[in-house]
Amino acid sequence: MENLNNNQWKIFKGAGWLLGALLAIVADLVVFSLSDSIAAAISAALPILFFAGFSLEQKFQRGIEQIDVKKTKLMISSLLIGFVIFVAIYMSQNS
Predict the structure, then answer these.
(1) Membrane spanning segments where (predicted)?
(2) Would you list the DSSP string of 46-83?
(3) What are the residues whose beta carbons fall under 8 Å from the beta carbon of 90, sequence distance 6 or more?
(4) Is the pTM of this model over 0.70?
């Protein structure tokens, strides 16, 4: 009998990058609507595109596999630190 937990996801290559691009576009629109600055919107969206696209693509290509908790915490903390630094730089430029 086939084990249902071992089924691999049927997702095409590049789906993670496309989903990361969609997240970056949403972030781009949110930052642009809040700041009215296209430069700030693009500089906020590019890191999201690369981090989210890369991590989602790896997740989709690996299929069902246990993810290391330390790597997840490191990714979340690096994104959070990057966002805080971006907001600090942006706020210091507008003051």
Answers:
(1) 12-32, 38-54, 74-92
(2) HHHHHHHHHHHHHHHHH-S-PPPHHHHHHHHHHHHHHH
(3) 35, 40
(4) no
* AA letter at 30: V
**Taking Cα atoms as reference points, which of 46, 59, 45, 47 lies closest to residue 15?**
59
Report how far apart the first and last C-alpha atoms of the chain are (Å, whole number).
66
The one-digit pLDDT tens for each residue of the chain (95 residues) are 445 555 555 677 888 888 888 888 888 888 888 788 888 888 888 888 888 888 778 877 776 666 677 877 887 787 778 777 777 777 777 76
Using CA atoms, how far apart are residues 8 and 10, in angstroms rounded to an integer? 6
27: tokens are: 């972030």
